[in-house]
């Protein structure tokens, strides 16, 4: 749980060696490059081999295939231009065929009620023609009063399918609807065309599946193209003076030695210095994979400031706890665990996937433990006495659950302010953050224990600290107190943030209440309707609990993250940073099917 300390490093070498040195630095992947001069605007080469958009489109097309072949890992004679042409041709054919198939399917559905027929020649009907109308049933009286020669060839619960015999198209005022266009091609011919098209489409799909064996090779080319563009961009960021160039960047302290050894091997001048006081280095988070799910959540929402602290582990455990309280059902936890077990191996493809998998496992475990503690199993009581004995909380105890939720919220915000005080430890503002923490703690204990004098004193002391220490620097100044008065207006915000944690109790109770309601509804239906009632009971249970499970998971994710990334962040992180982006080559990991 740390933000790695970084230092500013400069590499100086000969311009003639610049391409090879930059390529080697990119292979190391240790440096976040600092531009020493503005990079120019690059235009992508439109040549077939390096067109990134075409590569990306072809790769996405193959990755979308349902079935994939075993990958070709070594292909010395691989021709990218030829492969992209084959993929583009296959993609175009498939688009045309699927579009034509959709048209034929709709046309066939429209023509089926009319039957299979060929329009006769004009002379065959004494120069009379057939006109087709799809007439709603309630408008048939208008057809009967039209005076036209007509017949109904089909009828369903909504329409009559009317054929009118007339030399010219009937006037619009004689028929209640506009005529229907059936086309010249008979139904049997359309069905035959659709069958031939389906066969041809199967061949195109088979070719697409065969092309998926080249996904890895395309990924390699895409990665190399991106690496080359990144290398060209960095090459323009260096400082070039006659025969010498300089590359500067941020490097983690733990990687300094490795980069120094590299500079020695390459014969480069190596300079290292600490960040200036007014500089803001990039933030590089480092967490163990087992708890790295919190880092993924933190990085997705907001990168902490380099001079702040890493909230990844706090977010990991607090989000897990909040999700479990919102779910409040051991049965739903087991269902989510089954889904996780089914996708377990698929979530092993990358470090990010494994981190999120570990976070999901923590959610399942915590939800199961809390579900047993509140004694809810798909909204029912514990099935065996041993599980019933493990029930320690009652969701229907409104006062107890309300006190628990507010206590959790207060503790969360106390921790947030303590961590903010640690970040501001070199400034008197740290005491203002401690004042907020003391005020929340005193107010909580006062509410729980009927306001003994010590809690009143603590609340007053906290408010005074906020008043006199907000906006203070390393030296206290009397004229800054007025800003502390403005800061005290955040008391209402703090009160609202603490009460916001009541959503834990409210959502947990709502989830349990819905489960109980579906159980009761299913039981009542089974009792009222013997026989078919059993089927309806099962249907209500499956549908109801599936709906409640989805709502519970969505609520747990949204509100569990909201309490961390809004309420908690507002009091623990002051400024946003930017992520450490190493100048590194992209890695492509082959996979086999």
From TrEMBL:
Instruction: Answer whether the UniProt record assigns the keyword Transit peptide to this protein.
Output: no
Membrane topology summary: Multi-pass membrane protein
* Membrane-spanning parts: 314-344, 356-380, 400-423, 430-447, 453-470, 501-522, 534-558
The molecular function terms of the Gene Ontology recorded here are: ATPase binding; proton-transporting ATPase activity, rotational mechanism
Q: Name one GO biological process term.
A: vacuolar acidification
Q: Does the keyword Cytoplasm apply?
A: no
A Gene Ontology cellular-component term? proton-transporting V-type ATPase, V0 domain
Task: Name the UniProt key words of this record, in alphabetical order.
Answer: Coiled coil, Ion transport, Membrane, Transmembrane, Transmembrane helix, Transport
Instruction: Note the coiled coil stretches, chain numbering.
Output: 187-214
At the top level of its lineage, which domain of life is listed?
Answer: Bacteria
Tell me where in or outside the cell this protein is found: Membrane
Q: Where is it chiefly localized?
A: membrane
Hey, which family's this protein in? Belongs to the V-ATPase 116 kDa subunit family.
* UniProt-recorded name of the protein: V-type ATP synthase subunit I
The species is Nitrincola tapanii
Taxonomy of the source species = Bacteria, Pseudomonadati, Pseudomonadota, Gammaproteobacteria, Oceanospirillales
